[in-house]
Design a protein that fits this description.
Blueprint (H helix, E strand, L loop, with lengths): L8 E4 L3 H13 L6 E4 L2 H8 L16 E4 L8 H10 L8 E5 L4 H10 L3 E4 L4 H18 L6 E3 L2 E3 L8
Parallel strand pairs: 1-2, 1-3, 3-4, 4-5
Antiparallel strand pairs: 6-7
Helix pairs in contact: 1-5, 2-3, 3-4
Length: 164
């Protein structure tokens, strides 16, 4: 897969209105490159683990961050988070829960499962756009991901041709 086709953001959102808001916010923040959308937990897991319609992908090709709603059809966000964080091939991918739930049990369970950040969705577009811009700036530009490659055989050190 070429570098330009590597997905930087996996946006897992089932609400058409919230999805539209998020995509508009990414566009406003000039962060629209390489976003994959999954509309339920099954689609998210198929993308992440290169199954189903995404069987041709390589697991090493991203995403750089997962923005995950908790209230999803078919497989809920907690189960998606659990599977990401318990698989050695994906556990280093930063996951940001972006949800309408501010219930303590959801927050505590998310952190217990290894979420990197938990954000309750703001209601207004301006606040939502600001939150998405800050998320994009932090997770895509400032955050330092591990330099080792994550493969189906576990984590490998950079090869001799890789820059360190």
């Amino acid at each position: 897969m070429s570098e330009s086709s590597i997905v930087e953001v996996l946006l897992v959102e089932d609400s058409p209105q919230d999805l539209e808001l998020a995509l508009r916010a990414f566009k406003k923040a000039n962060l629209t490159n390489r976003i994959e959308v999954a509309r339920d937990g099954v689609e998210a897991l198929e993308f992440l683990f290169c199954e189903g319609a995404h069987a041709g992908r390589r697991i090493e090709d991203g995403p750089g961050v997962v923005l995950l709603d908790l209230k999803l059809p078919r497989i809920d966000g907690m189960e998606v988070l659990r599977r990401i964080k318990t698989d050695p091939r994906t556990k280093a991918i930063p996951v940001v829960v972006l949800t309408s739930s501010n219930e303590q049990k959801d927050i505590v369970e998310s952190y217990n499962l290894g979420v990197n950040s938990y954000i309750v969705k703001p209601v207004s577009f301006d606040r939502f756009a600001a939150a998405v811009e800050e998320l994009g700036l932090y997770w895509l530009l400032l955050n330092q991901a591990p330099k080792a490659r994550i493969t189906g055989r576990g984590t490998q050190s950079p090869g001799k041709d890789d820059q360190v």
